[in-house]
Amino acid sequence: MEILSAEQIRAWDEYTIQHEPIASIDLMERAAASCLAWLEKQGYLDRSFSIYCGKGNNGGDGLALARMLSLLDCPVTVHILEFGNIGTEDFQGNLARLHQTPVEVRFVQGPEHFHPVPQDDILIDALLGSGLNRPLEGVTAQLVEHLNASGNEIIAIDIPSGLFVSRSAKGNTVIRASHTLSFQVYKPAFLMPENEVWVGEVHILDIGLHPGFLSQIAGEAEILDPDIIGAIFRPRQAFAHKGNFGHALLVAGSYGKMGAAVLAARACLRTGSGLLTCAIPGCGYAILQTALPEAMLVMDPDEKIHTAVPDGLDKYSVIGVGPGLGQDQRTVAFLRSLLQQSRKPVVVDADALNILASHPHLLSLLPPYSILTPHPKEFERLFGPSPDDYVRVEKAREQARKLGCIIVLKGHYSLIAMPGGKSYFNSTGNPGMAKGGSGDVLTGILTALLGQSYSPGEAALLGVYLHGLAGDLAADTHSQESMLPSDLTDHLGKAFQIIQKR
Ligand SMILES: NC(=O)C1=CN([C@@H]2O[C@H](COP(=O)(O)OP(=O)(O)OC[C@H]3O[C@@H](n4cnc5c(N)ncnc54)[C@H](OP(=O)(O)O)[C@@H]3O)[C@@H](O)[C@H]2O)[C@@H](O)CC1
Ligand SMILES: Nc1ncnc2c1ncn2[C@@H]1O[C@H](COP(=O)(O)OP(=O)(O)O)[C@@H](O)[C@H]1O
Ligand SMILES: [K+]
């Protein structure tokens, strides 16, 4: 699913109006009807509603919804915020239609018109939508604060009023919705952690915009969905042998952090690597041999840390490096040699990223199309602080282009930024994965896929999606609270089966 800017969405409206064809007010009718259907499905129709409208098309949606609710005998009051203009054509058309119903319409010109909010009313926010072009101020901001302070449940139409579609509204006044009903596609605003308090749960409603439009635009970002994954995943051939599925080298673990190596290695095996060798310090020998009989080992001469690059790197189809590595000075030198000798894309995570952050000149040694998997803190260490989430995402895209690498910026909607400029937001995963070790599992998964002749881009997309899907399945089994990173690996099998069936 594409992620579009406000301008692109407006253009899609226009395209639909021309090519379906459909009158603009009828498209608004469809948008309002989709909100009504959602309210009905969620069991809201036995409630009473206060609907707050601006004078743009977002307000028009609110007026149309008010009429529809009233026709179903729901008690509705409409409050229209006076902006000192007559409103858009479709707003006016819907106001005329609303006047033919018994719905009471109140005009709000100043705080003296802010009625106390009836305690049990559901508030519908149709003040401002994707047309917002400046922060809320004056009466508008005061009204939003009044509604937020009411403690009532607020459902926002299209986007909570005060939130921009594609840039930060940090520090501004914004409606705090518990649900946002938006149309057709995700907007960037819904994917940014800083907006969670305002958007609540997001529901994308299909209003039948013309599909022909999508072939005309070069979308910069997409939601990683089952269709994309279905096109990437390749089932095993009947006559395949282990040589077809790569020989992965996983460089991980140090004294006190051998668990990271075990987690990554198990995930690598469960993601189908043909062969796996783990490069580990001496202290990990018994641990790895006992935990994972399927894995082979190459031992570092040092007992506790990584100091020496294993011989014959070229025989491995892929290298994954980082989980539990430590940042000893000798390990820094080790990482430098490892990257210098690597001729294929490498998966780089955790302490390997931290070493790159403290020795940025090493970034130039990354083989093209390597996959870097920083969480936001590691990202900040690598590329500096960002004032808001939008800037961080943009910076990740920029760095992916600059380094010629894939950057997986991990989070609720992990961003996968490709060197060619395209990026994806992952749709799987849950807060049960916010535990030390989940990232190590991802490294194992990505390393396995990259070794199995998936292209680096394919491996990154499939791996991040599978990791989150396994997380969702683990949460179903164990709850988000109780699930462990190792449960992600235990649910990879089921995750593969789901992908395969689609
Ligand atoms: N496909 C879809 O998605 C469909 C979308 N539809 C709906 O259309 C909505 C977009 O409608 P829209 O373009 O009329 O914008 P909307 O936000 O109602 O008004 C913005 C106007 O307000 C003003 N303004 C801006 N900032 C302000 C501020 N801080 N404080 C005060 N005023 C401010 C500014 O005018 P200005 O004052 O700058 O002249 C601007 O022009 C969309 O969200 C969805 O609900 C459906 O109906 C059909 C299908
Ligand atoms: N709230 C969340 N929703 C979805 N996924 C999450 C959430 N929190 C963490 N994750 C996922 O869990 C993983 C955590 O990785 P990371 O922070 O590197 O963990 P660690 O280094 O401790 O193993 C990432 O893939 C991230 O996307
Ligand atoms: K709104």
Supply the helix-strand structural class.
alpha/beta
Top-tier CATH class of the largest domain: Alpha Beta
Can you list the ligands bound to this structure?
A: ligand NPW, adenosine-5'-diphosphate, potassium ion
Query: What is the CATH fold-level name of the largest domain?
Result: UDP-N-acetylmuramoyl-L-alanine:D-glutamate ligase
Q: Kindly estimate the percentage of residues that lie in beta strands according to DSSP.
A: 15-25%
Poorly predicted runs are none
| Number of separate helices | 17
> How much helix is in the residues?
25-40%
Backbone CA Rg: 26 Å
CATH homologous superfamily grouping of the largest domain: Ribokinase
* End-to-end gap: 16 Å
Total number of distinct structural domains: 2
Q: Give, in spatial order, the strands making up the sheet with the most strands.
A: 1-9-18-17-16-15-14-13-10-11-12
Task: Round the mean pLDDT to the nearest integer and report it.
Answer: 97
CATH architectural category of the largest domain: 3-Layer(aba) Sandwich
Report the strand count: 18
Q: Overall 3D geometry? A: elongated
Quick one: biggest sheet?
A: 11 strands, mixed
Subunit structure: Homotetramer.
Keywords: ATP-binding, Isomerase, Lyase, Metal-binding, Multifunctional enzyme, NAD, NADP, Nucleotide-binding, Potassium
EC number: 4.2.1.136, 5.1.99.6
Protein name: Bifunctional NAD(P)H-hydrate repair enzyme
